[in-house]
Amino acid sequence: MARPTRTEVVVPELPEVETVRAGIERHVVGRTVATAEVLNPRAVRRDPAGPDGFAAAMTGRTFLRAERRGKYLWFALDDSEALLAHLGMSGQLLVGEPDRPLSPHVRARFTFTDGGPDLRFTDQRTFGHLMLTEIADGERRLVPEPIAHIAADPLEAAFDAKDFAARLVHKKTQVKRALLDQSLISGVGNIYADEALWRAKLHWARPTETLKPAEVSRLLDAVRDVLTEALKAGGTSFDALYVNVNGESGYFDRSLHAYGREGEPCDRCATPIRRDAFMNRSSYSCPRCQRRPRAWQPPVVG
DNA sequence: CTTCAAACCTGTGGGC
DNA sequence: TGCCCACAGGTTTGAA
Question: When comparing pLDDT for A84 and A23, which is higher?
């Protein structure tokens, strides 16, 4: 039984990041940074200005909006610049009383000129990062320059379902790899990829080029449903490593059908869920509902 | 151009 | 008890 427990780590995907964005928004928008402090330089490793340059450039800036695409969120600082954040595997953005104890995993801290609650970027595994960056043209939307290459996520207006379908079936890869490819569709990680595939009754190894239009449509519907339901539940989170802006854990984990359920009965057919090694991680699927594709032969041309 | 996999990182838990 | 190692995984980078 590998079902995630409250002590396991679960990475923030689109629903969790959106929960953070919405929670942070009302606490920081309209406020001006009094001090910016980088406690671990790795937190700003992608910012060419370095820790000191980053801190100096953030001082005096005002948070205007909180936006998100896929798993990235950012705070617009003016028309041309933004503070971009990725939570990585264990990142949190926490708002609280400025004089509360500094936990050992706080990587960056911002105080505000109004003397109110501060903002802390906490990240145990340090895969997340912050950077101050230019705004640029992304996929049908203005976004921070470093993420101009990622695709729209399926919950935003800029997402083009026809374009996604065309690009998906044109790929020469397995369907789960495609779902995790942020330049094709953003916001989906390992958990929701498995959940969407279970819901759409598709095996993770299915070659994308063999997907029929109805299957692509079913898959996209499944992705949207899974993300939307998780968002309603406040994001999946199993332990203290991931909490929302107010420090509350989510509770969507009870509705997972595939992820982390090795050996447990499928909720549709009771066949034990299996776990496969995949891309140096795990894929969970129902061996009966999600049939492994037969060996596929390329079409003969001519 | 595309696809793929190593590397980055640290806390946890199982095995011995 | 304590040590070691596998595992968790999003993204970048470089190789093929």
Answer: A84
Percentage with pLDDT > 90 across chain A: 78
The predicted model gives A256-272 an average pLDDT of 94
d(CA A202, C1' B13) / Å = 32
Can you give the distance from the CA of residue A302 to the C1' of nucleotide C9 in angstroms? 43
What pTM was estimated for this model as a whole? 0.91
pLDDT at A178 over 90: yes
Give catalytic residues of A, as residue numbers. Answer: 12-13, 71, 281
In this structure, is the dihedral angle defined by the CA atoms of residues A173, A280, A7 and A91, taken in order, positive or negative?
A: negative
The answer to whether A11 CB sits below 7 Å from nucleic acid chain C is: yes
Q: A205-219: buried (b, 16+ CB within 10 Å) or exposed (e) per residue?
A: bbbbeebeeebbebb
